[in-house]
Design a protein that fits this description.
The structure holds two protein chains of two kinds. Chain A is an alpha/beta fold. Chain A is 51% helix and 20% strand. Chain A has an eight-stranded mixed β-barrel with strand order 13-14-16-17-18-19-20-21, surrounded by four helices. Chain A has a five-stranded antiparallel sheet with strand order 2-1-5-4-3, sandwiched between helices. In chain A, strands 7-8-6-11-12 form a five-stranded mixed sheet, sandwiched between helices. By secondary structure, chain B is an alpha+beta fold. In chain B, strands 15, 16, 17, 18, 19, 20, 21, 22 and 23 form a nine-stranded antiparallel sheet that branches. A seven-stranded mixed sheet of chain B has the order 2-1-7-3-4-11-12, covered by helices on one side. At the A-B interface, helix 2 of A face loops of B.
Chain lengths: 649, 380
Amino acid sequence: MHRLLKRQLKRHFQETVPETFQPLLQAISSAYEQADLDREMLERSLALTAEELLERNQRLSQNLQTQQQAQADLKASYEILDATLNASKEGILVVSADTDRPIAVNKHYLLLMGLSEERINHMTGADLFRNSFLQLFEGQQLYDQLKEMRNHEHGSHRIYPMRKGGWLEVYAVKHPVAGYIWMLRDISEIREKEETITYQAQHDSLTGLPNRVLLQDRLELSINRAQVQHSRIALCYIDLDGFKTINDSLGHASGDKLLIEVALRLKQGIKPQDTLARVGGDEFVVIMDDISSQDEVLQRADNMLATLMPPVELDQRSFFIGASIGIAMYPNDGESTGLLMRNADIAMYRAKANGKNCFHFFTPSLERIAQHRLQMETELRKAIEQDQLELYYQPKVFLQSDPRGARTGQLHSFEALLRWQRPDGSFVSPESFIHIAEEAGMISQIGQMVVEKACHQARQWLNEGYESNISINLSPRQFLIPGFHEDIVDTIRSYGIPSAMISVEITESLLMQDLVSARGVLEYFRAHDVFVYLDDFGSGFSSLNYLKTLPVDAIKIDRTFVRDLSTSRADRAIANTIITLGKQLNKLIVAEGIETVEQANFLIDSGCDLAQGYFYGRPVNGEAARHYFQLSPTLPAATSPLVKPGASE
Amino acid sequence: MQVSQHIWDATSVPPQWSPALTEGQADLLLLFASVDPAAAISTLQQHFPETPLCGCSASGEIHQQRVIDNSITLTVIRFAHTRIRLVTECVDGIEGSRQAGIRVAQQLQQDDLIHILVFANGLSVNGSQLVAGLNQQLAPFNHISGGIAADGERFKQTWLYTSDGRFSHHVCGIGFYGQHLSVSCGSYGGWDPFGPKRRITRARGNRLYELDDICALDLYEKYLGHYADQLPASGLRFPLLISAADNDPVVCSVLGIDWQERCLLFGADIPEQHFAQLMRANVDRLIDGAHTACQQVSQQNQATPDFALLVSCVGRRVVMQQLIDEELEAFSETLGADIPVCGFYSYGEIAPNRGVGKCNLHNQTLTITTFTERTACTDC
């Protein structure tokens, strides 16, 4: 029975409870027990629930704290990300793939796409796409890029020209979480630099004209086009005449000015669609497309030469600049760029050889000449290496009796003449190889060799007791080599012979080339007792002014006047005049090419000082030349015969 | 419609029905027992050889608005117009419950079907799957009620009875046909959820393993204290309110324990990731709940019913103990004291939600089904 019921019965029922009440009491007792059980259950449930809730509350608080920390961390990392994004020079946009809204954008993107922060907040991905479309040229490409981005794991990369100018590089990639990521970079500057580099790689920095690289490209294009259209092309190779002289004498700055002027003029002389390129120091090439006839080319080449005709003003002086033009035609003269260039070059050399300031079309025979020249050049190099070049000596003799003892026909001095004897014994004349040596840049080497050989010979003769002057010929090209004259004097000294034992012969054309520097060189020779002959006088643009002002010691009458002395009155008059003039100017007069007794007698009678020619002696090698000493021994002092007869008094 | 009610008097010699069975054929016999009714059924087979019999084992029988134990109760029903049909289906394992429901529904489905009463074995049949099968076949038809057989507070063996004998893995369906019959239902629990909502983190079928990643059996043992020794019966004190965002919450009772796997067994499926909240009883609220169920019925039908079937949960008995009669008094107070009532304390109640909604398996409720047969058919 329930405790409470027991107590209640005890309190209210002192007597024993009747048996009939027992079921009722049992029911009351179990109701009490049930209530107790219910209460117990309820209390237990409440306690456990409270405990559990408390525990959950604590867990929630902890979670909240963790979440707050995570939120703070997230905020910080978002701020870092935001700062990083905004620090980037790239425009960055992220559009959610789910909502089509921009979820990240940096300032540079807004700048590049002309948007404000406020505006972009109200825009969808589609709006932004439309905006990009408006900002860029070739916007339709954006659709392709969008498709490509969706299909390719590595995204899509394109470059667009911007409507506001410049170039935009756009990289787009799809990310499974972030969505569509667009990265924009303004590459205008890089592109500009690249273009500049490409331009510089393809253009001549001085004239701004295409260089050899671009010329090659253009020529290939022209050839391809001509092939398709069955048309003709003319390739003109232009080489300026005498440019080097101007460059060397006035300096590079003036040379550059001249080239710029030439480029301008040539440009005026060609059609807009033609290509004018500068391919070397003073070399230009013109591609003429779609040529109808050779006459057309001829006319246009003439035009080009005509544009160069007017004098160029440099340093307050006027210069005439000419050009030699070689022309090769496609397809007749070659179907490849290399062949056309080579053949035009060959034709240019012919134009130069033809007297400059003219043009020449390529012909197959020119090619043969060019090949021959190439062969000669190769052989000449080999000849220099193998010492096949040697000096022959032709005597100059007195024509007049001299008060100091010289008599007509007596040996005066020698002119050293270069001979090239091939291993097979055949001779190659200097006329055949000197110009090749000059053009191939071997003249310096040959010039030095000549001086050495002459000095060596003079030294040898001196050792044997023969004392005679040897004159060597100087090429105009040698004058272009800085310090060449000092080298000559140094070489003479190195052989321990008096400077007066070596003399030099120069041509009129050399003086015309660059009078100022020629004067300096001649004065140097005079100062060092090196005697100077002016060779071939009368054959060129003889200027009497040279004779008056230049330190020239002797004049050699050109052999053309001597040849016809016996038959031509005019030649006799000229010879007489030169001799008289020379005497008046106190120069020694030498006649060369004397082959007959008539010629000799005339010159003796005219009072010419010296003679040279087969009549008096052929050029022979050093060994054989001794024979001349034995026939007519020179005067004791080597220098004395060089003095103008009577001048010593 | 005529209804007579009888109790098997095993003490008389020979044992017999009291009051004695009247002569003449009947249309339906409903039998509920908490003792072996083999002898009683045998007499019925002789007396009503043609009449379908259906019933089940119980955790207490409801007889004439009283609760009795260790008895066999019989209700003999005679209809003036209504036809009935009884079908029995074997349930092929607990997984076959839904298919059994479908088969029963298929056999009973007819145009003038008014109502279906369903009784099934407990423990061997998944009640919620059975109802799902019925719904699948019959929806939107929702006039289905009944209950799951019980085994006192032992949770060992339940039986289903028909005139062919007793069955352990079966379901019976009784179809009522004809426009003269009017059937109303009411169902209400009156339990209060308490404590935190817990996520069902591990469950399989009707087996619950973990709530919020903690062993569910541990939780029950903690809340029951020393009453844990009386599990699974004491587990009836704490049914679970299972809810999900898109469903009406459902009350589920503990029907067994698997001590080896340390999990709780329920009469219905426990879906993972749904929420579960412990419920507790307050006797007054349970009695109020009985009143609410009765009111649901009376709102549907103003006429006094000819007969009522009450199915109440064994969990309510465990809590209410000797106050259990009060929920039957709620019935007589609301619907009338003279109405013949039968029924039983079950391991699960089947009825439309709140008497009118979708048919569902309930736990911890009082479920009422009233039958009224009109002499004139309103539709005829």
